[in-house]
Every structure is written in structure tokens, then in C-alpha cells.
Amino acid sequence: SPAELLLGEWVNDLKSHVVINSTEGATIRGLYQTIVGASKKKWVPLIGFVNPTNKDSPTFVFGIQWEDIGAASCTGFVGQYFHTDRGEELRTNWLLRRSSNRKDDWQATLVGVNIFKRVSTRQT
Ligand code: BTN
Questions:
Q1: Whole-number Å distance between alpha carbons of 42 and 32
Q2: What is the value of pTM for the model shown?
Q3: pLDDT in tens, 57-83
Q4: Which among 29, 5, 26, 3 has a CA at the least distance from the CA of 18?
Q5: Can you tell me whether residue 67 is helix, strand or coil?
Q6: What is the DSSP letter of 117?
Q7: What is the spatial distance between Cα 78 and Cα 59, in angstroms, rounded to a whole number?
Q8: Ligand 1 atom at minimum distance from 94 CA
Q9: Could you give the CA distance from residue 68 to residue 30 in angstroms, rounded to a whole number?
Q10: Pocket lining for ligand 1, CB < 6 angstroms
């Protein structure tokens, strides 16, 4: 299934690692390790969905809450899988919501781009 294209380990431009461990229908589950931000080198659970409509290049969304590394923030990633001449890529945009008080709402949200490249071979 298109969701299975995401299975395996990926690394982004910040050297963060993502492992997508399982798919169940359109649902994906995995672990995220970031070396930037609150604390380092812990694997934090993620959950998301793949839209299988574009079978060769599906879109997806996944979310992470960072309690396990001592942060009060959440990040949502949305992206698309591509198989290009440079290999497989997950091209994503993310929003990070920091915990803030209401008067600091204007500075509570970070936005960015991350490109993930496959590190391990896809499971079949
Ligand atoms: C935090 O510091 O609030 C928790 C860690 C956040 C890490 C962010 S999520 C978006 C960006 N992409 C990464 O791989 N790491 C940072």
C-alpha cells in the first residue's frame, strides 16, 4: 500500500531521525529523535495518516508531543513522499506550537521546512 512506502528510517537536514514502524490502513506509527530543541537523543512517539490517493507519491501528516524530552510543545508535520533521481525523499512543512501565555501568543508558533532522506532499506 502507499502507506508502506514510508516504512523505515529517515534523516533530515537537522540530523533528526524518524522511524516509521507500522502502518494499519492509512495510520502510521513511529518514533522521532531530534538533536535540536529541548533535550537530545530520546525517541518520542509519532502518529499520523497517509492519504493513499496518489499511489506513487502519497501525502501524509504526523504529529508529536514533546513531553518525553521535557518540552511543553507539539509539532505537526505535513508532507509528501517522492521517489526522485536523488533517491527517496519526504518533503515536509512543520508548525511547532510552544506553550505560551495569551499575551505571547504572537510568538508561540514556529514554522519550517524539513527534507528527510531514507537511511535504511525499506521493509517489505
Ligand atoms: C522543543 O524544543 O520544543 C521540542 C523539540 C522540537 C524539535 C523541532 S520539531 C521541528 C524541527 N524539526 C526537527 O527535526 N526538529 C525541530
A1: 8
A2: 0.94
A3: 999 999 999 999 999 999 999 999 999
A4: 29
A5: helix
A6: E
A7: 8
A8: 10
A9: 14
A10: 12, 14, 16, 34, 36-38, 66, 71, 73, 75, 94, 96, 112, 114
Give the ipTM of the model, two decimals please: 0.99
Phi, psi for residue 69 in degrees, rounded to 5: -110, 20
Partners of residue 17 on adjacent β-strands: 11, 33
Residue ID of nearest Cα to ligand 1 atom 6: 37
Of 31, 34, 68, the one to substitute when testing ligand 1's pocket (max ligand atoms within 8 A of C-beta) is: 34
Contact assessment for residue 108 and residue 88, using Cβ atoms and an 8 Å cutoff: no
Query: In this structure, what are the phi and psi dihedrals at residue 3, rounded to the nearest 5 degrees?
Result: -60, -35
Could you tell me if 35 and 42 are in contact, meaning their C-beta atoms sit under 8 angstroms apart? no
Choose one of 10, 73, 109 to mutate for the ligand 1 pocket test, by most ligand atoms within 8 angstroms of C-beta.
73
